[in-house]
Amino acid sequence: MFLVKFVLKTHNKNSVPVVPLPPGPSPWPIVGCLPEMWRNRPAHRWIHSLMKKLNTDIACIRLGNVHVIPVTSPEIAREFLKKNDAVFASRPVTMATDILSSGFLTTAVVPWGGQWKKMRKVLIADLFNHSMVQWLLGKRNEEADNLVKFLYNQCSSNPNGSVVNVRTAAQFYSGGVMRRMIFNTRYFGKGRKDGGPGFEEEQHVSAILTILLHLYAFCVSDYLPWLRVFDISGHEKKVRGALKIIKQYQDPLIDERLKEWRDGRTKEPEDLLDVFISLKDANGQPLLSGEEIKAQITELQFATVDNPSNAAEWALSEMLNQPELLKKAEEELDRVVGKQRLVQESDVPKLPYVRACAREALRRHPVAAFNLPHVSNTDAVVAGYFIPKGSSVLLSRLGLGHNPEVWENPLRFDPERHLKGDADQQVDLEEHELRFITFSTGRRGCMGGCAWDYHNYHAPSKAFARVYLEHATPCGQD
Q1: What is the rounded distance in angstroms from the CA atom of residue 237 to the CA atom of residue 230?
Q2: Could you report the per-residue pLDDT of 55-93, keeping only the tens digit for each?
Q3: Which residues does the annotation say bind heme (predicted)?
């Protein structure tokens, strides 16, 4: 009788269909596929090549004891971040995010939990709202006007034309806007008379970009934590060195401002740093500690420097390579703005073609191969595959934006694909259907996506379109 029961129990157990993992390479014990990844760096190329070889839009690659799930299909991406948003709302614990966030005190890179909820509430309620955007309009305009001045000085300094480093200009503008809104200053040092970045600003932005490069960079110790002490890839040394530079410029300003508020010398907010300091809890005590303020301000700059500057640089580069696009943008600016004044933020909604150029730059030239990873809080089934708890889901910016089943001629820069022929249409940067990645979506979507998209629109439309478009071609030819 016991044997019969055992056989029946075993039969019933085996008759239950098992949901498979997504396709992927067979992992080694303990290390998983880390040896293959290490031999085939950069990791993102290896992953995309592997998915192409497997002919799949979703894969499972075990690195150490972590299941990494890359996705290149918009339909599957929507199933992860729309249908199962709550399940995949956490972040991985990594060496770089731990250092950057001062022990996970911030928002974007922090795993799901109480601290994330606290900081997210602060950003949504007190920073990323319409009234705050309008309050900071003057500061943004100051930096946009300064960029015009800088580009004009660069192009007019030599009567025979001169070369302008578009990347430097775009990164300086993006960083300058955030410095102005946070610290109410353009420069950490003396600055330059021509309006360009000084040594301090270049070093600060360079440090930000260094950390971004190593933020989710498939560091071996993120998958085998016991190897972190050896810093095999040298990532930790680079991240700590870059963060030291950032704090060298920022922390003295923050400490001095905290002292001003404690001493009563400052009573009304004049910038975002003041807003952070002035927040109170239910008992009238400071809502945020000094360390939380420092960490969150650093993270804000990480989230607002690389993507806007990358979009502006590539939009202008593509327009210069295709003069007909440049002409259309210039005609739209002449029609809407004219030549007697500079573009204002209020003009941007009336510039659908310029907006389409920015949107197409984000699709065609994403700032990174993958979006920030989403970690599953529990076991789940997505697209017919089993996704174990703790899996790290990577939406491929390259795979989604260059998917030939979604985009016709995906490698061609074509702003027209975002226009529907309506002269009054609104072209938004947000892509809710995840056909490519702008601000992502769901609980982990960019909280400032709609509020701060002027970063992507205002730079190419105001600065480049009115000054640089008139000077860049002859300068470049020389």
Answers
A1: 11
A2: 999 999 999 999 999 999 999 999 999 999 999 999 999
A3: 446
Question: Which of 190-198's residues contact partners 24+ apart within 8 Å by CB, and which partners?
Answer: 194/149, 194/150, 194/153, 194/154, 194/157, 195/146, 195/147, 195/149, 195/150, 195/153, 196/150, 196/153, 196/154, 196/168, 196/169, 196/172, 197/168, 197/172
Bind-site residues:
446
Provide the pLDDT for residue 17. Answer: 57
Cross-strand pairs, 66? 63
Distance CA 76, CA 53 (A): 19
- Cα angle value 374/233/245 (rounded, 5°): 80
How far apart, in whole angstroms, are the C-alpha atoms of residue 374 and residue 87? Answer: 9
Q: Which of 239, 252, 361, 233 is nearest to 302 (CA)?
A: 239
Those residues whose C-beta lies under 8 Å from the C-beta of residue 454, and which sit 6 or more positions away, are: 140, 345, 348
Q: Which residues contact 260 (CB under 8 A, 6 or more apart)?
A: 266
pLDDT in tens, 286-319: 999 999 999 999 999 988 888 888 998 999 899 9
Query: Using CA atoms, how far apart are residues 150 and 47, in angstroms rounded to an integer?
Result: 41
Cα separation, 286 vs 191, in Å, equals 34
Q: Which residues does the annotation place in the binding site for heme?
A: 446
Cβ atoms of 392 and 86 closer than 8 Å: no
DSSP secondary structure letter of residue 345: G
CATH class of the structural domain 19-477:
mainly alpha
Rounded Cα–Cα distance for residues 441 and 125 (Å): 18
What angle is formed at CA 224 by the lines to CA 219 and CA 228, rounded to 5 degrees? 65
Rounded Cα distance between 272 and 132, Å, is 9
CA–CA distance, 171 with 353 (Å, rounded to integer):
23
The predicted model scores a pTM of 0.90
Element housing 453 (H / E)? none
Q: What six digits make up the tokens of 453?
A: 């998209």
C-alpha torsion sign, points 53, 59, 65, 66 = positive
* Radius of gyration (C-alpha) of the chain in whole angstroms: 24
Beta strands in 45-151 (DSSP E): 61-63, 66-71
